């Protein structure tokens, strides 16, 4: 991701909500202190755990971004503002920014910050500078305001009037890119998102106000690799024109979070080829690249059933309840620990033969054998299995740490433990 965005001449902002670890956060921004380190979080506990590293970057003189080193990536609850202020006091002015998507929330936030700054003044401390991005809805319809809204121009004017230079730019999350099924879908989504923020900039009255336009989700950010590797995708030429046009007046950055882990949901987007790609040196987007795996134990075996099944010690609280469009289950047994032959791993794009988590209850899951019964890989009580989950962000939420293994070494050898940040 760092190589691709650098080659395009755009910034990159690492989202940490998927993995919630310091180690992966550092890997996402790299060790080069000449390259900016910028983050986006979804909870304040993530921001608070990043604080020591952000202060370390400050001490090294490492730039953090063209705008704000840290963005709170969802419209912030007003009850969390005092906590945000305490965090901001420990960092350089302007380090933290928030997202706004409606006028009443912005005015309430300004009132809260005014109260906090008055309290700081009483204590003889400097007032805080908090950056503001306007969250633009480019089609996901979760948070954000659409540029077609009759309230959009008024909201931009109110934010600029209330923030001045603390208005940093526009932010979009193209979450519906997860529904894509091809390189073209991902590329077109990225182009659509850039064009959406380009439309947003037309509401800013001062053309000299240089903004940061932050776009992305893992499939669309992954599409940047395709844009660099091939001109065969129809959107490539237009994408390069839009990037060049926007960079004349604004700073462009991409953001993404689940890509260091990947999951079955991301593989199903087919945002990159699933096999070796002669066009570039980038890794394929395949199950073999999924980093997060759930360790489960077989507790019962039901091979007498018409479709063989087995009970495992992980249900919806471990794997989540989100389905995946590419196959009928909640996880796929990987075969890493030798309990399932490597030729019997379920492939949603290929053989469709292997063990999957076919049903889930709260604490347990039911493995179902998919494919010819005579090809079934036998399981026995006590077998340990690794399972790729549908959605890494949700699957990781039930755990306090990761057991780290090295893919070039024994799959059962734990080489490190990484603690996850928990809470809000």
According to CATH, the homologous superfamily of the largest domain is Alanine racemase
CATH architectural grouping of the largest domain: Alpha-Beta Barrel
Radius of gyration: 23 Å
Oligomer: single chain
Runs with pLDDT <50, length 5+?
none
Tally of separate helices: 12
Helix-residue proportion: 25-40%
What is the succession of H and E elements?
HEHEHEHEHEHEHEHHEHEEHEEEEHEE
Please give the number of β-strands. Answer: 16
Helix/strand/pairing category: alpha/beta
- Main sheet strand line-up: 1-2-3-4-5-6-7-8
* Major sheet description: 8 strands, parallel, barrel
| Total domain count | 2
Q: What proportion of the residues form beta strands (DSSP E)? A: 15-25%
CATH class of the largest domain: Alpha Beta
- The overall pLDDT average reads 89
Q: Which term fits the overall shape?
A: globular
Walk me through this protein's architecture.
There is one protein chain. This protein has an eight-stranded parallel beta barrel, surrounded by seven helices. A six-stranded antiparallel beta sheet has the order 11-14-9-10-13-12. A two-stranded antiparallel sheet has the order 15-16. Helix 7 (183-201) crosses helix 8 and helix 7 (183-201) packs parallel to helix 9. The model has no long low-confidence stretch (mean pLDDT 89). By secondary structure, the protein is an alpha/beta fold. It has twelve helices and 16 strands. Helix 7 links the parallel strand 6 (167-171) and strand 7. 42% of the residues are buried. It is globular. It has two domains: 2-263, Alanine racemase (TIM Barrel, Alpha-Beta Barrel), CATH 3.20.20.10; 292-419, D-serine dehydratase-like domain (Lyase, Ornithine Decarboxylase, Chain A, domain 1, Beta Barrel).
């Amino acid at each position: 991701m760092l190589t691709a965005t650098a080659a395009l001449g755009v910034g990159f902002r690492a989202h940490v909500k998927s993995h919630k670890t310091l180690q992966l956060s550092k890997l996402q921004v790299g060790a080069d202190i000449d390259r900016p380190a910028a983050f986006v979080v979804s909870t304040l506990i993530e921001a608070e755990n990043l604080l020591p590293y952000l202060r370390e970057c400050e001490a090294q003189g490492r730039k953090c971004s063209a705008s704000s080193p840290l963005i709170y990536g969802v419209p912030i609850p007003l009850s969390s503002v005092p906590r945000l202020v305490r965090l901001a006091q420990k960092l350089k002015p302007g380090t933290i920014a928030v997202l706004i998507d409606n006028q009443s929330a912005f005015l309430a936030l300004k009132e809260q910050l005014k109260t906090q700054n008055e309290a700081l003044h009483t204590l003889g401390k400097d007032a805080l500078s908090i950056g503001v991005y306007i969250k633009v809805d480019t089609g996901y319809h979760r948070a954000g305001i659409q540029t077609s809204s009759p309230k959009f121009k008024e909201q931009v004017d109110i934010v600029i009037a209330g923030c001045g230079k603390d208005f940093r730019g526009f932010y979009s999350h193209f979450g519906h890119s997860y529904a894509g099924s091809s390189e073209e879908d991902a590329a077109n989504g990225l182009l659509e998102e850039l064009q959406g923020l380009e439309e947003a900039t037309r509401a800013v009255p001062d053309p000299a106000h240089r903004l940061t336009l932050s776009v992305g989700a893992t499939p669309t950010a992954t599409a940047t690799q395709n844009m660099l590797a091939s001109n065969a995708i129809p959107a490539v030429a237009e994408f390069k024109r839009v990037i060049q046009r926007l960079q004349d007046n604004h700073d462009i950055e991409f953001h993404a979070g689940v890509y260091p882990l990947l999951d079955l949901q991301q593989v199903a987007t087919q945002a990159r080829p699933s096999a070796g790609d002669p066009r570039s040196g980038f890794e394929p987007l395949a199950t073999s690249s999924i980093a997060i795996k759930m360790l489960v134990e077989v507790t019962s075996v039901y091979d007498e059933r018409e479709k063989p099944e087995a009970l495992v010690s992980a249900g919806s609280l471990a794997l989540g309840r989100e389905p995946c469009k590419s196959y009928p289950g909640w996880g796929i047994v990987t075969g890493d620990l030798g309990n399932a032959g490597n030729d019997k791993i379920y492939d949603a794009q290929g053989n469709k033969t292997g063990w999957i988590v076919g049903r889930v209850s709260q604490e347990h899951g039911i493995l179902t054998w998919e494919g010819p019964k005579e090809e079934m890989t036998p399981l026995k009580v006590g077998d340990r299995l690794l399972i790729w989950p549908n959605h890494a962000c949700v699957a990781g939420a039930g755990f306090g740490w990761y057991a780290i293994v090295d893919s070039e070494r024994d799959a059962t050898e734990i080489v490190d433990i990484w603690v996850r940040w928990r809470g809000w």
